[in-house]
């Protein structure tokens, strides 16, 4: 398996103060992470020990106070209980891979306050360039081709997305 370690765009101290991601309006939200084969291997002990994934491979949520939370979110301090083994989608966020009829595209999720605060910005542009290089690597391309089930159709959320680049054009 390739090295999937990504530099984090949003500083940890900003993430830990935010109450945006890892929280969903519905239990079956398309924003929940979907595990690829590599993610499943890294979390095999949790997956076999509990009711972690739904039938489509999405991480199940826990409902509390009318909201749905990722079951790995520690609400008291906003940390992730599987951070070192978190799904690829989680490490990529607030950038996402979206499937379209023809290809996979990379977007920034505009609902992330840090993204909003850094558009346009040299730091944002540098990170997008970094992502282009990352996704250009042969081992990453191979990983993505083996894990196409991770990609979501976010077409219903188009106003929340900023198109960055198309993976087939790299």
Describe, in plain words, how this protein is organized in 3D.
The protein has 170 residues and is an alpha+beta fold. It has two domains: 11-85, no CATH class; 94-170, no CATH class. It is 29% helix and 18% strand. The protein contains seven helices and eight strands, in the order αβααββββαββαααβ. It has helices at residues 12-15, 37-42, 44-49, 88-92, 113-117, 122-136, 138-146, and strands spanning 23-24, 61-64, 67-70, 73-74, 79-80, 95-99, 104-109, 161-166. The strands form three sheets. It has a three-stranded antiparallel β-sheet with strand order 1-3-2, with no helix packed on it. The chain has a three-stranded antiparallel β-sheet with strand order 6-7-8, with no helix packed on it. A two-stranded antiparallel sheet has the order 4-5. The longest helix is centred in the last third of the chain and has 15 residues, at 122-136. It is globular.
Quick overview:
The chain is α+β, with helices and mostly antiparallel strands and 170 residues long. It folds into two domains: 11-85, no CATH class; 94-170, no CATH class. The chain has seven helices and eight strands.
Total number of helices: 7
Query: Rg to the nearest angstrom?
Result: 16 Å
The total tally of domains equals 2
How many strands in all?
8
Looking across the biggest beta sheet, what order are the strands in?
1-3-2
What is the molecular shape? globular
Q: Beta-sheet strand percentage?
A: 15-25%
Span between termini: 21 Å
Content-based structural category = alpha+beta
Low-confidence stretches: none
Q: Characterize the largest beta sheet: strand count, sense, and whether it forms a barrel.
A: 3 strands, antiparallel
């Amino acid at each position: 398996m390739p090295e999937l370690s990504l530099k984090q765009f949003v500083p940890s101290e900003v993430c830990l103060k935010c109450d945006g991601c890892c929280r969903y309006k519905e239990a079956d939200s398309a924003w929940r992470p979907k595990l690829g084969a590599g993610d499943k291997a890294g979390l095999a002990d949790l997956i076999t020990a509990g009711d972690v994934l739904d039938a489509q491979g999405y991480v199940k949520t826990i409902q509390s106070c009318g909201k749905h939370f990722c079951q790995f979110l520690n609400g008291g301090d906003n940390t992730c209980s599987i951070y070192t083994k978190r799904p690829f989608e989680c490490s990529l966020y607030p950038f996402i891979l979206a499937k379209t009829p023809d290809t996979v595209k990379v977007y920034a999720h505009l609902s992330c306050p840090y993204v909003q605060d850094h558009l346009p910005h040299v730091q944002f542009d540098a990170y997008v360039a970094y992502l282009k290089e990352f996704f250009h690597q042969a081992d990453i391309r191979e990983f993505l081709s083996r894990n196409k089930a991770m990609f979501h159709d976010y077409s219903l959320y188009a106003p929340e997305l900023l198109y960055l680049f198309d993976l087939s054009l790299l």
